[in-house]
Design a protein that fits this description.
It is flat and about 190 Å long. The chain has helices at 8-39, 45-54, 58-147, 152-165, 168-181, 186-199, 202-215, 220-232, 234-237, 240-254, 261-272, 276-288, 297-310, 344-376, 391-409, 415-428, 433-445, 451-465, 470-482, 486-499, 504-516, 520-538, 548-564, 568-581, 586-597, 604-615, 621-638, 642-658, 660-665, 700-713. The protein is built from 30 helices and no strands. The chain has five domains: 8-38 and 48-141; 148-288, Alpha Horseshoe (Serine Threonine Protein Phosphatase 5, Tetratricopeptide repeat); 294-312 and 346-377; 435-589 and 698-744, Serine Threonine Protein Phosphatase 5, Tetratricopeptide repeat (Alpha Horseshoe); 599-664. It is mainly alpha-helical.
Length: 744
């Protein structure tokens, strides 16, 4: 709605007022005209009109002017008022238009905001979906390696996935988990450093490199990757001193490794790169240098004396090069440039002598290098890999180490050289415990205190490379116990026990650790748990129903209770409980008899009850007959009632007749003898109070079970049995029939 036109209403009012005034003025004039006409008898109308036009009354004109002025003033006020109203209306209309524009703008802003929020929400939903998909994929890869941590291929798939996706947190977690288990994979340290360089900082990448070089200091390739990385970091590019210090670190760590020539070449190239003019100066210096400046004074004088004695009257080889030289002018002694120590011939002879001496050293070095090249050429895989090495490769490393030991014994090499060979061997053969054990045995044989170095080797072997190898863990536990750390020894065995719950030998080793440190309560607790474990194994559907395993453990526990803890009643209780479960186990009866016979004073009624019960038990005829014979012997030696002795003898004769036919068909077993206490009779022991029966051997079934468990779990990476290592049967001793029976 547009603004109203000004003056419209005022002009209309002004016109109306003028018309009213004109009508008012015209009426009196018309009356005068009529009266005049009548008086003059109807005079001429035109003359009257002319008269009116010529002489208008002053009062009327003044009145008209006054009315006109008032109207104009009034109209002006109205116009002003109308103008103000119009302005207000226009202002109001303008404000309204501005409000409408503001509302439109706010609506557009709201729409834009909602659009952005929707886009962000959609983007977040997509990111969340991608994160969920990524998490699901990661869980799949993680599950594979958690189910089987030795699945090297599964680890590589996991690392490849996180590396391609650049998942920073999960990537670091995966790399650290992998490299904790396989720290000798130098290529993955390089990949991890590149990952940190892309997603982190240069410092993070440098930290990864340093961790890798600490884990595998002999890796020439890893050092080269690190040096190339450092040279690309802007803050170090022009820092020559820092770069030189890193090269020195590298050659100190792996400079004596057989294949370290690459890193030495890089170091030399670094020092001379762009400095060819300085090399020319160096060559000039060497060319003009006198032998005395290359040697200590005493060495130079001794060499000069030897040369002077050798060249008297003889021509120095190589002095005549076909060109005749003019003799040099003699210099006055004392003048600058005068050399009073040697003539040209003498100098040449000394140089030849130096070369001859170095040639001798060269020949010895060459012979040594040829020997090592013979081994080095046979080593086809000097790096780490989870794939088994060929038998020939393992033999090469074994022979290489033995040869270096011979040279060290003859003092032809230094101890560090053999140590480097061992460390190199353990990179390629990290999964073969015999090499770790050989290294530890060698370190143990060295003079001085090497405990920390040996502990570090054990830690590397058992933590990273051989986490489930039983033998080396048992050795580590023995090492820690030997050095007074019983807690660590027990923890090592406990961890292995969790990995191999079927190996009773591990449980027994842990029990004996607790026994040696006097923790009797823990010994009893562990023995009872061990018996339950053995019983569960014997009842396993997949296992043999042989009762030997639990019987052996029960007998051991009873011996400890009786002989070590002096608790005979508890020992009887353990054997009786075992007999309730396995009433036909002869070893349990032997142990029960041994307890009864070594309890002083003898409880004759209880011993008689034992023999009577045994005669009624279904056991092998030969064993029953021997127990009957033993009953007669015991009563003769310790019985107090002659009637009971005669009754026992009669019962024995009757039993012998009854079992005669069964004994003919029964197959004899080796070691079926029962003797308890000394007697002058044939077949009895000759020592009073000694062990009254043969050492209880582990049965063939027990030994077979334990050996099978060892083969399945502890010999995973040992297809190559070393021929020159001592037997490492620390935890399987006696499984074939001799072992734990005679330990007390």
């Amino acid at each position: 709605m547009g603004p109203k036109k000004r003056g419209t209403r005022a002009s209309k009012r002004k016109s109306e007022a003028i018309e009213e005034v004109e009508e008012t003025v015209e009426e009196p004039m018309e009356a005068e005209d009529n009266s005049g006409t009548e008086e003059n008898g109807g005079g001429d109308k035109s003359s009257v009109e002319e008269e009116e036009n010529v002489a208008e009354p002053p009062a009327k004109k003044a009145k008209e002017d006054e009315i006109t002025a008032e109207e104009e003033e009034k109209n002006a006020e109205e116009d002003e008022k109308t103008s103000e109203e119009d302005e207000k209306m226009a202002e109001k209309n303008g404000t309204k238009e501005e409000d409408e524009g503001e509302q439109i703008r706010l609506k557009e802003e709201q729409k834009e905001k909602e659009r952005k929020e929707n886009e962000e929400k959609k983007k977040k939903e997509e990111e969340d979906k991608m994160a969920d998909d990524l998490k699901k994929e990661l869980e799949k890869y993680w599950k594979a390696v958690k189910d089987d941590p030795s699945d090297f291929t599964g680890w590589t798939y996991l690392l490849q996935y996180v590396d391609n996706k650049n998942v920073v947190h999960s990537g670091r977690e995966a790399y650290y988990a992998f490299l904790k288990r396989y720290p000798y994979c130098y290529g993955y340290w390089k990949k991890f450093a590149d990952f940190e360089k892309r997603n982190g900082t240069n410092q993070n990448a440098a930290d990864v490199f340093n961790q890798g070089m600490q884990a595998i200091p002999l890796s020439v390739d890893l050092w080269i990757h690190y040096l190339n990385y450092v040279k690309q970091v802007p803050e170090y590019t022009d820092n020559v001193e820092y770069l030189r210090s890193q090269y020195n670190r590298a050659v100190q760590a792996c400079g004596r490794e057989w294949r370290s020539d690459k890193i030495w070449d890089l170091f030399v190239k670094f020092e001379v790169c762009g400095l060819s003019h300085q090399f020319d100066k160096f060559r000039e210096f060497v060319k003009n240098n006198h032998p005395k400046d290359l040697m200590e004074t005493a060495e130079f004088l001794a060499l000069r004396k030897e040369v002077l004695a050798g060249i008297a009257g003889e021509k120095v080889p190589g002095a005549d090069d076909g060109a005749e030289e003019e003799p040099a002018a003699d210099l006055v002694p004392g003048e600058e440039g005068a050399d009073t120590t040697a003539s040209a011939e003498e100098t040449m002879a000394m140089r030849e002598k130096l070369i001859f001496t170095m040639k001798k050293v060269f020949k010895e070095t060459e012979k040594y290098a040829e020997m090592r090249i013979g081994f080095e050429d046979k080593i086809k895989r000097p790096y780490f890999h989870v794939k088994p090495l060929e038998r020939a490769q393992l033999k090469t490393w074994d022979s290489y180490i033995e040869k270096m030991k011979e040279l060290l014994k003859d003092e032809k090499i230094e101890q560090d050289e053999l140590e480097i060979i061992y460390e190199r061997c353990l990179i390629a053969c990290a999964l073969y415990e015999e090499f770790w054990i050989s290294y530890i045995d060698w370190l143990t044989s060295l003079p001085g205190d090497n405990k920390e170095k040996i502990r570090a080797v054990y830690n590397r072997a058992c933590t990273s490379h051989l986490p489930d190898k039983v033998d080396i863990h048992c050795r580590w536990a023995a090492f820690e116990e030997l050095n007074g750390d019983f807690d660590t020894a027990a923890k090592i065995l406990e961890d292995q026990e969790k990995l191999h719950p079927e190996l009773i030998s591990l449980k027994l080793k842990r029990i004996n650790v607790e026994r040696r440190r006097g923790n009797d309560e823990k010994v009893c607790e562990l023995y009872e748990a061990c018996i339950k474990s053995a019983e569960a194994f014997a009842n396993d559907d997949a296992a043999s129903k042989d009762d030997a395993l639990m019987a052996d453990v029960s007998i051991k526990y009873a011996r400890v209770l009786r002989l070590y803890m002096k608790n005979t009643e508890k020992a009887k209780e353990i054997i009786n409980k075992a007999l309730e479960i396995y009433p036909k186990n002869i070893k349990l009866y032997l142990q029960q008899l041994d307890i009864l016979l070594h309890t002083v004073p003898h409880n004759l009624p209880e011993i008689e009850k034992f023999f009577s019960h045994l005669m009624e038990t279904e056991i092998k005829p030969s064993i029953k007959l021997k127990f009957s014979q033993r009953r007669v012997e015991f009563l003769e030696d310790f019985g107090t009632n002659m009637s009971s002795i005669q009754a026992a003898e009669s019962a024995h004769v009757e039993l012998k007749k009854k079992l005669a036919e069964s004994l003919k068909t029964e197959e004899p077993e080796e070691g079926d003898t029962i003797s308890t206490i000394n007697s002058d009779r044939k077949g009895r022991s000759g020592s009073n109070g000694g062990q009254s029966y043969p050492p209880v051997a582990n049965t063939p079934a027990y030994g077979a079970q334990q050996n099978m468990a060892y083969q399945n779990h502890a010999s995973r990476y040992a297809p190559y049995p070393p021929t020159n290592y001592p037997a490492q049967g620390g935890y399987q001793q006696g499984y074939a029939g001799g072992g734990y029976g005679g330990g007390y």
